[in-house]
Amino acid sequence: MTATTAAVIAARQVGKAYGPTTALDDVSLTLGPGEIVAVTGPSGCGKSTLLHCLSGILRPDRGEVWFQGRNLAGESERARSRLRRTAFGVLFQFGQVVADLTAQENVALPLQLGGARYREAAATARRWLDELGVGDLAGKRPGEMSGGQQQRVALARALVTGPAVLFADEPTGALDSLAGEQVLAALVRLARGQGTAVLLVTHDARVAAYADREITMRDGRVESDGLIAAGGVA
Q: What is the pLDDT of residues 167-198, one digit of tens each?
């Protein structure tokens, strides 16, 4: 484990296939505390599968995924689900906020699942909504919000537990350019503020520019891994 002790999360020779199709082929990478890493590449290159394996949504067919001394590939589904409620935040392209819950209830949900009382969870959720500029929507349901507003609610929900790692899969893919920039700027600012590492999957070079480092994938393999010249967008 000496090679991974400085990393918040690390993959070692991870492989994953769907039937005869290889999605990941011996992928190794590390993500440091507070680091923002963009994973880029053409559609079908394995970006989302990698995110799903690192976040414990999928179990790799081979290889190891280490997080704080634990090999997630050997953990049960229940244990991996618990990590996604506590140590990991996950943000998808379409947010996946719960349609029947208000914005405040959506953001409070991970805290309640972790055992927090409703009043405490609701107060914390409201602070995060205010931080993201959507506090006035606390009592509204997703159907009453724009796409950008929904995604900011989803970002608040992903960060509300103070996760060690935020996994963001094409988080601005369904938004117009202005709303996308607003979500990305908030994501970077808040993640840096609480030292959360971010794995940002995208096919868009403008989105990747917000990262500190870019990993390019092709045909299920890491093609390149290097620092972004500008050092990320503040």
A: 999 998 888 888 899 999 999 999 999 999 99
CATH topology of domain 31-56+77-227: Rossmann fold (3.40.50)
Rounded to 10 degrees, the C-alpha dihedral 230/231/233/234 comes to -130
Q: What is the DSSP letter of 176?
A: -
pTM higher than 0.85, yes or no? yes
Inform me whether the pLDDT recorded for 1 exceeds 60: no
DSSP state of 211: S
Whether 157 contacts 188, CB under 8 Å: no
pLDDT, mean of residues 79-95: 88
Q: Where are the domains of the chain?
A: 31-56+77-227
- Parallel, antiparallel, or unpaired for β 221-227 and 213-218? antiparallel
Rg (CA), the chain: 17
Whether residue 212 contacts residue 224, with contact meaning beta carbons closer than 8 Å, is answered with no
